[in-house]
C-alpha cells in the first residue's frame, strides 16, 4: 500500500462542543437583601478561586455601571446578582477578599465592580494570560474553544442589560460566561508554567489588582469621532460646547451620549457653525425628529462658542505631557528618531522570539519616553531605573533592558 499524499491528510482536531446550559441550570436573579445574604454565606463557604463577570449597558446608558454581576465558585454554584436591586455588594466583596478572582479582561469589569463595593486583592486575568501565552485570539469565546474545546454562544454581549426583567436567554448567556472560567484559568496556568511565563503573569495580575482608579481624562471632548476634520479654533469651541451640553443631558437622562446627539452631528455643526436655528436644523443629525426645544439647546451651545473671545478659544491640540508624535521626530530630533527606530526593531524581535504581543512586553509609550529623553549614560542600571519609573514590571525590565541599551548605544546598528 502506498502512502497517501500529504494533500489528502485532513485536520483531526475535533469540533468544539456547544455549551448550551449551565450545569445546575439558570439560577434565579438575586434581587433582595435576603437572597444576597444567602449568596454571601454560600460563597464564603465555597472553595478555590471565584469566577467573576459583569454586564454593562454600553451604548444604551450613561456611564459604565454594572447591571448584572455573575459569580461561580466550587461548592457555591453560580449566582446572578442584580446590582440595581442590590446596589451595595460590599459584604460579598469582603467575604471574597482573600480569594483569587478569575476575570476575563479584568480592567474592563473592575471599575464597575468597585462601584458596588467589590475589589479583589488577588486576581487571574484569563485574557491577559492568553496574550502572554501567545494565543492569537483572546476573546472569551475563542479561548474557551481553543483551550477547553467548548463553544460559547456570544449573541447577547451587546444587548441592553439595563432591561428589566432580563430575558431568560440573556441570563443563560450570562451564567455560561462564568461556567468555565476557573477551568480556563487552570489550563492557562499550566500552559504558562510550561512556557516559563507564569511568574510574568503573576506580576501583571498583581499590578492590575493594586492599580488605583483611572484618572478622569483631560478634555474628553477631544475624543469626539471625526475631530480630524476640525481645523479652526472657533470650530473646536463648537465641538467643546456641544459635547459638554450633550454630556450634561445624557447624564441627567441616564442615556448613552451618542443616543442624545451623534458625534457626526457635533462635527457637522462645528464645520458649518450655523448662524440660526433653521441653519442648524438642516444639518445631518439635527433632522425633523429633533424637537424645537432640543434644537434651541444645541443652538445655545453653538452661540456660546461663537461668542467666546479669542483668548478663551481652545488650543488646536491638547497639551502635550510627553514626547511629540513620532512622525515629527525626524524633523525635531533626528538622533531621537534613530533611537526610536532601533528600539522598536529590537523590542519587536524580542517579543516575537518570546511569543507574546509587543505591547505586553513593554508599552510603546514607555519606549517613546525613553528614546526621547534617554539618560546621559545609557547603562543597564540607568535604563532599568527609567523603565521602572514608567511602571514597567520587573520581568519586563529584566527582558528588555539589554536590547534597549544596545539600541540606545548604537542606534544605527
UniProtKB/TrEMBL annotation:
PROSITE patterns: HRDC (PS50967). Residues 232-312 form the HRDC domain. Pfam families: DNA_pol_A_exo1 (PF01612), DNA_pol_A_exoN (PF18305), HRDC (PF00570). It comes from the Bacteria. Residues 1-22 are annotated as: Disordered. The keyword Nuclease applies. One of its GO terms (biological process) is nucleobase-containing compound metabolic process. SMART domains: 35EXOc, HRDC. One of its GO terms (molecular function) is nucleotide binding. Transmembrane segments: none annotated. Keywords: Exonuclease, Hydrolase, Nuclease. InterPro entries: 3'-5'_exonuclease_dom, Exo_C, HRDC-like_sf, HRDC_dom, HRDC_dom_sf, RNase_D-like, RNaseH-like_sf, RNaseH_sf. The keyword Isomerase does not apply. This is 3'-5' exonuclease.
Amino acid at each position: 500500500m502506498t502512502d497517501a499524499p500529504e494533500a489528502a491528510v485532513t485536520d483531526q482536531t475535533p469540533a468544539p462542543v456547544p455549551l448550551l446550559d449551565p450545569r445546575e441550570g439558570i439560577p434565579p436573579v438575586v434581587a433582595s437583601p435576603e437572597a444576597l445574604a444567602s449568596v454571601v454565606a454560600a460563597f464564603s463557604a465555597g472553595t478555590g478561586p471565584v469566577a467573576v463577570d459583569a454586564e454593562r449597558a454600553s451604548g444604551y446608558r450613561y456611564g459604565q455601571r454594572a447591571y448584572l454581576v455573575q459569580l461561580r465558585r466550587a461548592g457555591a454554584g453560580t449566582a446572578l446578582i442584580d446590582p440595581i436591586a442590590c446596589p451595595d455588594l460590599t459584604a460579598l466583596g469582603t467575604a471574597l477578599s482573600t480569594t483569587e478572582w478569575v476575570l476575563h479582561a479584568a480592567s474592563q469589569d473592575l471599575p464597575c465592580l468597585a462601584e458596588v463595593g467589590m475589589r479583589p486583592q488577588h486576581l487571574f486575568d484569563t485574557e491577559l494570560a492568553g496574550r502572554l501565552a501567545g494565543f492569537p485570539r483572546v476573546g472569551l469565546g475563542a479561548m474557551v474553544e481553543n483551550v477547553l474545546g467548548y463553544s460559547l454562544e456570544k449573541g447577547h454581549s451587546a444587548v441592553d442589560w439595563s432591561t428589566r426583567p432580563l430575558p431568560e436567554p440573556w441570563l443563560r448567556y450570562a451564567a455560561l460566561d462564568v461556567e468555565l472560567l476557573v477551568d480556563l484559568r487552570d489550563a492557562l496556568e499550566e500552559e504558562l508554567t510550561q512556557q516559563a511565563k507564569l511568574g510574568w503573569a503573576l506580576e501583571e495580575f498583581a499590578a492590575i489588582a493594586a492599580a488605583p482608579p483611572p484618572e478622569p481624562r483631560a478634555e474628553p471632548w477631544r475624543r469626539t469621532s471625526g475631530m480630524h476634520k476640525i481645523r479652526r479654533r472657533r470650530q473646536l469651541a463648537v465641538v467643546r460646547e456641544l459635547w459638554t451640553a450633550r454630556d450634561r443631558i445624557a447624564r441627567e437622562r441616564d442615556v448613552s451620549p451618542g443616543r442624545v446627539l451623534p458625534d457626526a452631528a457635533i462635527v457637522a455643526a462645528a464645520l458649518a457653525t450655523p448662524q440660526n436655528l433653521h441653519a442648524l436644523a438642516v444639518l445631518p443629525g439635527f433632522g425633523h425628529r429633533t424637537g424645537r426645544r432640543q434644537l434651541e439647546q444645541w443652538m445655545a451651545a453653538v452661540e456660546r462658542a461663537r461668542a467666546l473671545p479669542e483668548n478663551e478659544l481652545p488650543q488646536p491640540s491638547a497639551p502635550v505631557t510627553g514626547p511629540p508624535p513620532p512622525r515629527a521626530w525626524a524633523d525635531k530630533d533626528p538622533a531621537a528618531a534613530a533611537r526610536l527606530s532601533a528600539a522598536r526593531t529590537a523590542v519587536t524581535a524580542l517579543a516575537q522570539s518570546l511569543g507574546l504581543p509587543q505591547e505586553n512586553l513593554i508599552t510603546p509609550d514607555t519606549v517613546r519616553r525613553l528614546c526621547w529623553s534617554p539618560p546621559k549614560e545609557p547603562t543597564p542600571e540607568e535604563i532599568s531605573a527609567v523603565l521602572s519609573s514608567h511602571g514597567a514590571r520587573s520581568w519586563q525590565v529584566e527582558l528588555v533592558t539589554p536590547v534597549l541599551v544596545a539600541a540606545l548605544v548604537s542606534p544605527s546598528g
